[in-house]
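Q: Can I see a sequence and its folded structure?
A: Here is a first one.
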Amino acid sequence: MKWLKNRFVVVGFLALIVFLGLAGIRFSGGLQMMELSVYDRLLALKADSEVSSPIVIIKETEADLKRFGFPVNDGYYAEALEKLLAAGVTVAGVDIISRSARCARL
């Protein structure tokens, strides 16, 4: 066994065995809890303490629909979004029933 005398071949072979073993454990889900724990800790370190509540939900009520009518004019949504963006909001989403969706049901 001449190849066993060459250190580079032995170290390379052992490294391949270790790599394949760890890859097998990882792909079978054996390391998932450890990976998620490390990920959670990294996110906690990255978290900004200045933000009091990262998510704010604003919804329409029946009183809003009576006041503005249904469907609500898109100008009101545009004005609200402009005010939110001026306040420093980085992401804003709108989930509404639009006129086109209403017409499609009729």
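Q: Show me another, different protein.
A: A second, unrelated one:
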Amino acid sequence: MAEFEQNVSAQLEKSKSQIKEIETLAKGKASQAEIDAINSLKSKRREISQKLQDLKTSVDTKAKAVIEADLTKLNDSLGQVATKLKSNAASK
């Protein structure tokens, strides 16, 4: 379980860095929909982080699968938002 927790923590740190990069890219240029997407990503990251903390004090094996699925969704969403912002920046 410790390896899983370290892996999730590393991915959460990476997503935090990616979100900051996206925010920098979007600063002053993002539409309200893009701002909402960024805020949603931040919220999802906090949610996964909280689930990880809960898992540390639990024996719930289903929680691990939920966290893995949530991380996959978060990473997919990060990629989509970053791609959209980069293409918008390139076309301006």
